[in-house]
Structure formats: C-alpha cells, structure tokens
Amino acid sequence: MAEHPPLRHFGAGLLLGLMAEQTVLFAVPLMVYQVTGSLRYSGLVFALEWLPALLAYPFAGVLADRVGGRNLLQWANVLRAASLGLTVLCCSLAPALTVWALAANGVLLSLLMAPVRMAVERTVPQVAPAERLAHTQSLVQNMELLAQVLGPACAAALVLYSGKLALLGLAAVALLLAAMCWRGLPNAHADSVRQPVLAALGQGWQLLLGNPPIISLALLNFSINLAFACVLSANAFVVSGVFQATDGAFGLINSAAGALGLLNFLLVPWLLTRLSIHQVGALGFAVLCGGILAMGLASGLLGYGASFVLAMAGCTLFNVFNRTQRIKVIPREHLGKVMGPFYLVNLASYPLGGLLSASIGQRYGIQGLILALGLLLSGPGALLFHLTTRRLNAALDTDNPAMEASR
After folding, report:
1. Is 238 inside a domain boundary?
2. CA distance 345 to 284
3. What φ, ψ does residue 331 adopt, rounded to 5°?
C-alpha cells in the first residue's frame, strides 16, 4: 500500500467510517433490547433500518456514476454525522422517546448507507492498479473486519466510563474524519451525457437482467445475507437474553469475529497465490455454512460465539471472490447503475431477516430458525454457488466486448 499513496487515504477513510458503523451497531441493539426486553422489537427495528436502503441503492448507483465516488462518500458521511448528533440530542432531552429516536436515526442512516457503499464500489477501480484489483478488494474486506475488532472493542471499553449514548457522538466524529481522509482521492465519473434519472435506472436494471452471472451472484448473496440478517438482528437477544451474558461479552464476540481481519490480511494474498479466486470463494462458502449450522446447534455462549466467528471467517473469504468477480463482468462505465439494483436484490434479505426474527424467531426460537436457514444454504445454496461459478467462468472466457471492457 506504501507504493500507492491514494490507497492509504482510501483505507484510512474507509476504516474510520466502518468503525463508526460498528460502534453504532454495538450500541443501538443493546439500547433497544435493554429498553424493551423483546426480540420482536429488536427484529422490527432491524427491518426498519434496512427497508429505506433498498429504495436508495438504485438512485445511489446513478449518483455515483454522475458525481464520482469521492464526492458522494464525503457528503453522505457528513449527513450521517449530523443524523447521529441529532439523535444524541433527542435522546438526551427526551429519554422516553429513545426507541423512536433510534428507529428514526436508523432510517436516515439506512438511506445514507447506499451512497457510501456505491461510493466505495466506484472508487476501488480508481485507486487500484488493474493487476492489484483482487488484493484491493481484500483490503476493503480487511478494513471491514478490522473495524469489527476496533469498533466493538473500543465501544465495550468506553461504555464502562460513559453511557451508550455517548458512543453515538463519537461515531459522528469518526464519520467527519472519514470524509476528510477522502479529500485527495480521484473522483472520475463515467457519464459524459447525463441521462434522465428514470432512464439511467432502467438501463441499470436492463444491464443487470441481461447479465446471467450477476443475476446468479445477486441471488447467492441474497441467500447468504438472509441467514446473516437473522443472526445479526437477534445477536443482542441471544447473548444477553438466552445466554444471560454481559455487554462486554457481546462486544468480545463481535471483536473476535473482526480479529480475523488481521489474519485475513496475511492469509488472503497467500491463498491467492495457491488457489484460484473461485476456489477461495468455495472455501469461504463451505466455512460460513458450517458456522451458521453450528450457531443453530450451540447450547452455550462459548459454542455460539465460536460458531459466529467461524461463519464470519467464511464470509470474509467468500466476499473476496464476490467483490472481485462482480467487477470483472460489469462494464466499468455502467458500474454504478448496475451495482445499485444488484445491492437492492441481495440486500432485500436484511429487512426480511429482521421480520423473520421478529415473527418466527420470537415464536419458535431464534436458534431453530438459524439452523433451518443454514440447512437451506448448505443444500440449494451450494447448487446455486456451483451455477454462479459456471456462469462467471463462461462470461470471463467470452470475447463479448462488454465483458472485456470491464476487466
């Protein structure tokens, strides 16, 4: 990374923004559960947080193509910081409205998450040399996992000396610093002639539906994310309610999962010299399926926590494959337009997962629901993974000019 200075600024801004997100993810579920004591409310708030993002992703993709990734991320992070600041003020002045304030903040952060993700997708090809694309995507994944270490660990330590509400204020500061880190990055955008918004959205959907490997990959991501959505929406309830553990244990489990980012930083480049990118994806998929199944069967906090870490390890490896291959089969000049609908399809599972936790998980037990989803992922999901890799191989071996332009 020292050879490419823009990568340092890119990585630093990305890490700060992700740490802010992890701090919010640590504080908000605990605050909601401790105020309401109900898995149902935790699941509903989780679903509510994700629904607006689904509507925002296609528009965010068009914005990323028009204004460039750097500008889009900077403005989104400033607005996210403002939302967190207003939430802290509201909860401080009117504690009885805490759950509603957190839910409203979740809606705003959800809307702004889409521009941030699209900005990262748009910026990676600008800061990464072509021959280092897979390694740069690994860097993005490493930053996410490193944030999972530092975010919950710092939050768990700070909460001993301040309330959880103060953590939201610190997250707002981190988001402002993240915006500053991206000031000098390239900001190329692809649209020389600006299409009407609806025309651009329609073109994005048309390109997505005409790209079989991307359709398969989106459906595979949907399946994986559905299982993880149920896990993430219920984690605070399982740790604090089912296993009667402390806030510190909740932070430790998340930090342990994120600590894999440090190992991944060394492991993925080594794996890429010995395995194909498809083999890395297959290994990750198998490991994440095993971890999800083990979470459903766990009878104690230690087993549940270790299984969660295992599932996150698999997700790490799978996402290197996922992020690298999808960029290769999308024409670069239309990357934002296609990635918006792509995210909408695969992240539609998040509100659905929250609703499943709030309904089926609340009534029949959340671990039984996780086990059932793990079984579906391990059977039909494995067949879908095989179909996806075949379609990707066929697309990357073709002489189609659209495919060649995206390499």
Report:
1. yes
2. 21
3. -55, 130
